[in-house]
Amino acid sequence: MNSGYTLVICEKPDAARRVSDALSGGSARTEEVNGTAIYRFDRRGEEFVVCAAQGHLYGVSDPSDERAVYPVFDVEWYSSDLLDEDSANAARRISAVRTLAARASKFVNACDFDVEGETIGYNLLRYACGGKEKDALRAKFSTLTGEDLVKAFDEMKPQQGQGLARAGRARHAIDFVWGVNLSRALSQSALGSGHRYRTVSIGRVQGPTLGFLVQREREIREFVPVPYWKASGTFEKEGKKFTAGYAEDRIETKPFAGNVRDECAGKEATAAAVRRNSVQVGPPVPFNIGDLQKEAYRAFGYTPTRTMQIAERLYLGALISYPRTGSQRLPPSINYMRILRGIGKLPQYSIYADELMKSEPKPVQGAKSDPAHPAIHPTGENQNRALDASEATVFDLVVRRFLAAFGPSARRELTDVSLAVGEHRFRLSGGRTVFPGWMKYYGRFAGYRDVELPPVSEGDRFRVVDVVVEEKFEQRPSRFNQSSLLEKMEKEGIGTKATRADIIATLVGRGYVSAESMEVTELGLSVIEALTKYAPTIVSTQLTREIEEKLEGVESEGAGEASLLRETVRSITNQLAELSANEESVGREIDSALMSAVAKSFVLGKCPVCKTGDLRVIRSKTTKKRFVGCSNYFKGCRASVPLPQRGTIKATPKACEHCSWPIVDVTGGRRLWRLCINPECPRKRP
Amino acid sequence: MKCSLCERDGVSGLCPYHEAAKARVKATYPLWVKAYGGMDWKDYLDNVKRNIQTGQWAKEIAQFLKGD
């Protein structure tokens, strides 16, 4: 009989602490193993030890790690510290789990129940616990509240099929071989053009996503607007004036627009038709992660990545349910009444919660479901710490959306009046909310405006005060913003709810699009141009979507990943053959954009001394130290300042308000400093 | 052969992007003529070049066609 303890593996340290508190009733002891905090306690006569990963502790790479070598199809899992110098903690955490596993008799995977969480738990159980991935029990939960955690551990079961972990591991392997081979092929092509090695990267989902952005960029840059005219009239009845637009929203020719003005001015209008309509507006469906990201962008301008990070923090604080969900449904098992009672303790929501609890609450349900988690909802737990401003806004949005889902439909009264002036028709539209229903709960996020009209009946007469005709031009298409791009990816079925925001951030990080306006750079255009010409499959959505669908099949059936990997290898081999056959042309297409991107990355801003030169990062041939100098050096400008010798320096569009020298971002490890590069800046003087 | 308006390669003096923009500028001219009830080609190019909605490549083409 083995007398060891039960080792519980959580995904993050905060989750480990919450699991320990919930299972021990707050009596867990904190200890340190290999520099990592763990929790130990007894529960019903059984000893438990709870430890945590910190996201992925293992990653895929190729054993050779030669950046010039491709194709690469033999991949292995390695601890993350060997793959990324920013993951130094991974070795310490793995070592702690390995030490703890030696004396454990039972293992529990308590990572988040989704593809990434399953993969994190599976890898630790397999590599750090000596092949325990099949023997471990699974604790599944959607919130980190005490009640849900206790229930999850009371009901934990042996893992079955492990489809999520298989799909997760397959996704990591596919994305690695896809990205590493095609990126190396592109980088080698550029190298062939005679310059030193520069990484040109492309990924399985990055390619089609950049393709969407480039297609839109071309539409914008090729755009020629067509003119049209808009007419509106000011009408008067019983001393009250109001404005109505011409019935045709767009008048195609200038002569006709002139006719409208000339034939209506000074005439009398008659209300030819008055239509009143009462419409029901149903409540919005509960949030899945995509909906939350879009709504937070609309309401607060938060990027999808930022919203995801905030939602993660709220989840780890047990304030909202697991956010990486595709579900728009709230099952009764989450216990509506318990959550409403909890929310009701917060003064700003108490009236609404009390109101909803007067009858049996029943939420509206959306069409999308997720077998692992319900839609995002508040847990009803007390806030155990003060929320920062961004957390408070997202929490308010989640709570109000939850409350709104239980609200009755709103009713709006719409009025449409057609005013006739001879042959011409003007249209007056108004609307008001007569019963707010769910809008009351959703508050400022509901987004309906009242437009009141004067009382009008058919046959009423009005004086035409004046008619104004305006020349307009078609608007060029708008660039995607981070939210609309996320929506496009979702619609096209590429990426996953957990990865889409990161892929957008990667495209920005690679220098293919600018972060602010999402404008595609020359490098982004050139990469897509070359790929479209020589390896079009890489940028087509079809193959990426097919792979996503097959990965979903692996998730649900727990099999099929080997054949999917073989198919992927075949597909990549074909793409590589096309790229290799055209290496010279591909290199030529990318090269000049790459060089211009590299040159741009050295420019920090305009020189405040000579006003015409660019301040560039230069490395001294003698000292090897970097500094800033002006491009007009040979024309006599001696502007020059030292730079920090460590970290990555990135230009920002800003100049210092005190001295006009450029402001730069310096990143080192996980820290970021924003500073004025001028050591003599008046602001820095004591 | 380099494009007359940028660094990219082109077949007949323009890269594919500027070639597409040129086709667009030409195709839109009849719509402007109809909208204003008549317009000279050069006036049209002037207007396209000045319009804030016109895309960057279309502006460059308008200037190029005008021979500025």
Report what the structure shows.
The complex is a heterodimer of chains A (686) and B (68). By secondary structure, chain A is α+β, with helices and mostly antiparallel strands. Chain A has five domains: 5-160, Rossmann fold (3-Layer(aba) Sandwich), CATH 3.40.50; 169-221 and 479-595, Orthogonal Bundle (Topoisomerase I, domain 2), CATH 1.10.460; 227-283 and 410-473, Topoisomerase I, domain 3; 289-404, Orthogonal Bundle (Topoisomerase I, domain 4), CATH 1.10.290; 607-684, no CATH class. Chain A has 20 helices and 22 strands. In chain A, helix 9 packs across helix 10, helix 9 packs antiparallel against helix 15 (482-492) and helix 10 (304-316) crosses helix 13 (389-406). The model of chain A has no long low-confidence stretch (mean pLDDT 89). Chain B contains three helices and no strands. The longest helix of chain B has 21 residues, at 16-36. Chain B is elongated and about 40 Å long. The model of chain B has no long low-confidence stretch (mean pLDDT 93). The A-B interface holds A 218-228, 252-255, 473-476, 525, 529, 588-589, 592, 596 and B 7-9, 16-17, 20-21, 24-25, 28, 31-32, 34-37, 48, 51, 53-58.
| Count of individual domains of chain B | 1
Give the low-confidence spans of chain B. Answer: none
Radius of gyration of chain B: 12 Å
Briefly note the CATH topology name of the largest domain in chain A. Answer: Topoisomerase I, domain 2
Question: How many domains make up the coordinates of chain A?
Answer: 5
Number of beta strands of chain B: 0
| Largest beta-sheet details of chain B | none
The termini of chain B sit apart by 22 Å
Structural class of chain A: alpha+beta
Overall residue-averaged pLDDT value of chain A: 89
Give the overall shape of chain A, derived from the CA principal axes. Answer: globular
CATH class descriptor of the largest domain in chain A: Mainly Alpha
Averaged pLDDT of chain B, please?
A: 93
The percentage helix of chain A is 25-40%
Beta fraction of chain A: 15-25%
**Tell me, what's the shape of chain B?**
elongated
Task: Tell me which protein chains meet in the greatest interface and how many residues each side has.
Answer: A-B, 25 and 24 residues
Please provide the count of β strands of chain A. 22
Based on CA atoms alone, the radius of gyration of chain A comes out at: 31 Å
